[in-house]
Design goal:
Bound molecules: tetrahydrodeoxyuridine
CATH architecture: 3-Layer(aba) Sandwich
Shape: globular
Distance between the termini: 37 Å
Structural class: alpha+beta
CATH class: Alpha Beta
CATH superfamily: Cytidine Deaminase, domain 2
Number of helices: 4
Helix content: 25-40%
C-alpha cells in the first residue's frame, strides 16, 4: 500500500470528523501487516473529555476487526507543520506498535514527517517493565 493512498484515505476520513467544539478536524489511516486499511476521524462530545482522537478511532477499528499487527499510521490535520499526536494516542500506539511501524505526520500543505513510537513516546509505561 502506498503512502499516497494512505494519506488520501486519512484526508478523506478527516472530512468526516465530528468536531463542532474545536472545529479542528483530524484524519488518520492505519495499514495492517495483513494488508488492510482502517481510517478514523476525531469524534468530539458535549462532555469534552469523552472526545476520541482520529488516531485512536483508526487503531481501535483495526483492533476490533481482529487486527493486531500494524505496518503504517498516517495522521493529517490542518496545521502549519506536521500534526503532533496527543499523549493518550501515543500511549495507545505504544501498546501495539513496535518500532518498525512507520508513523507519518502530515498537514494539508504537503508537509510530512516520518517517525516512530519510541521517538514520540520514549520510556512509555508498560506493565511488563514494572
Ligand atoms: N485531535 C486528534 O484527533 N488527533 C490529534 O493528534 C490531536 C487532537 C483532536 C481531538 C479534538 O477533537 C481536536 O483534535 C482538538 O483537540
Amino acid at each position: 500500500m502506498t503512502l499516497e493512498l494512505l494519506l488520501e484515505a486519512a484526508k478523506e476520513a478527516r472530512e468526516k470528523a465530528y468536531a463542532p467544539y474545536s472545529n479542528f478536524k483530524v484524519g488518520a489511516s492505519v495499514e495492517t501487516k495483513s494488508g488492510k486499511m482502517f481510517t478514523g476521524c476525531n469524534i468530539e462530545n458535549s462532555s469534552y473529555s469523552l472526545t476520541c482522537c482520529a488516531e485512536r478511532v483508526a487503531i481501535f477499528k483495526a483492533l476490533s476487526s481482529g487486527e493486531r499487527d500494524f505496518r503504517t499510521l498516517v495522521v493529517v490535520g490542518d496545521v502549519k507543520g506536521p500534526i503532533s499526536p496527543c499523549g493518550a494516542c501515543r500511549q495507545v500506539m505504544s501498546e501495539f506498535f513496535d518500532d518498525d511501524v512507520k508513523i507519518y505526520l502530515a498537514n494539508l500543505q504537503g508537509d510530512i514527517t516520518e517517525t516512530t513510537i519510541s521517538e514520540l513516546l520514549p520510556r512509555s509505561f508498560s506493565l511488563d517493565e514494572q
